[in-house]
Specification:
The chain is an alpha/beta fold. It contains 16 helices and 17 strands. The strands form four sheets. An eight-stranded mixed β-sheet has the order 5-6-4-1-7-11-12-10, sandwiched between helices. The chain has a five-stranded mixed β-sheet with strand order 14-13-15-16-17, with helices on both faces. A two-stranded antiparallel sheet has the order 2-3. The longest helix has 23 residues. It is globular, with a radius of gyration of 23 Å.
């Protein structure tokens, strides 16, 4: 993470909320779009639904052209792989084998869909451990950010070739929410076989009302996902899993849209006012991120800062190596470290961009000297201001 960190442009203290699904889609800067198996896979032809993917890719290209960043969370690998088997694989090992066959087919389908728009797809395979263990979480985040910085569309899927039942997400709604959390996205779009949340199952209750905007996930709202609506959805997830995903994304400051993917150009349809449900986040991205840092496990070490660095941090600046007077403890990149002034007064806590041995080499030095001192070009700051939580002064 450097001065060009994703936090510098992605995270905001703004509490402004979109008032409609179309406004939310138009205003988001980084968007995670989740697509289920039934949309990706053409069951009749037993192959990728290329016409639908081409239409969605056109929508994605339009968003990218306007400066928005898109991450795709796509199911479909197992379904595509199964189509190449003589019999339907049912054991876990057989499903893993189907995923091994289907992953390349899925990426080929996305590459072909995005290529006419000069967009490149980059695959990221995740397991639950990748988003719940800090070091792997940081590595996955860095990969996603690197792809986006090069204008490449990340295509995320669960790594079904290696996951066991114990470490599976179980549904890609949750995976998409974790991806939105990891990427610090502004908006998560769950494309489904329904056009949002209803007060009851509209197929059975003519009085069911569609909810265009949900301000807060109350018990009443959550109960709508466990009744008749629970059958809505695709793949292994229904409305209940979608509401669980809304909770995960919302706690990270990310809004969520549930929209229909049954028609072609589903994102364009939302932009033009098609029916969908917008869920407001329960926090702002920056507040959620800093709350996570402040509540993290005990810091692995500490840095003693000179008076100039203390003033700079109080003024909202990042921590440069030149402001570090001493390094204490052993820590790795991504660990939380305590910050102190020379008198031992605690200043706050932050996520470090370098391991302790490298910080010891660059402390007191100018950022331009980092590469010559440690042998590689890393971040220009030791702790970015958005990865830092200060004690009240």
């Amino acid at each position: 993470m450097s001065a060009a960190s994703p936090h510098a442009t992605r995270l905001s203290d703004s509490h402004d909320h979109a008032t409609s699904p179309s406004q939310a889609l138009a205003g988001a800067r980084r968007i995670v779009v989740k697509i289920g198996s039934s949309l990706v896979f053409d069951a009749r032809r037993r192959e990728a639904n290329r016409a639908w993917l081409a239409a969605l890719a056109e929508d994605i290209a339009d968003l990218a052209q306007s400066g928005q960043e898109i991450i795709i969370v796509s199911s479909g690998a197992v379904a595509l792989g199964r189509a190449r088997f003589q019999t339907d694989p049912r054991k876990l090992a057989d499903k893993q084998a189907a995923a091994a066959v289907g992953q390349s087919l899925l990426m080929k389908a996305w590459e072909e869909a995005l290529a006419p728009h000069d967009l490149i797809a980059g695959q990221i395979l995740l397991t639950r451990d990748d988003t719940e263990r800090r070091r792997r979480w940081l590595n996955a985040r860095a990969t996603a950010q690197a792809l986006l910085s090069h204008g490449i569309i990340p295509v995320v899927n669960e790594n079904d070739t290696v996951t066991t039942e114990e470490i599976r997400y179980g549904d890609n709604d949750r995976l998409a929410a974790r991806t939105a959390q990891l990427a610090q996205a502004d908006l998560l779009v769950l494309l489904s076989d329904v056009d949002g949340l209803y007060t009851a199952d509209p197929r059975r209750d003519p009085d069911a009302r569609h909810l265009a905007v949900v301000e807060k996930l109350t018990p009443e709202i959550l109960s709508m996902g466990t009744g008749a609506n629970a059958e809505a959805g695709v793949g292994t997830g229904g409305m209940a899993t979608k509401l669980a995903a809304v909770q995960i994304a919302g706690s990270a400051g990310c809004a969520t849209l549930i929209a229909s993917g049954l028609q072609r150009h589903p994102l364009k349809a939302v932009r033009e006012g098609a029916k969908a449900t917008l869920f407001h986040p329960s926090s702002t991205p920056l507040a959620a991120w800093k709350q996570w840092i402040a509540g993290s496990v005990a810091p692995a070490g500490s840095l003693v800062l000179d008076d100039g660095a203390v003033r700079a941090l109080r003024a909202g600046k990042s921590l440069l190596p030149s402001g570090i007077a001493a390094v204490r403890g052993r820590f790795e990149k991504g660990d939380s470290v305590r910050l102190e002034d020379k008198s031992g007064t605690r200043l706050g806590v932050g996520l470090i961009n370098y391991p302790h041995e490298d910080v010891a080499r660059i402390k007191g030095q100018h950022s331009d000297e980092i590469e010559s001192l440690i042998g590689y070009r890393g971040a220009s700051v030791v702790i970015h201001r958005n990865d830092l939580v200060l004690e009240p002064s």
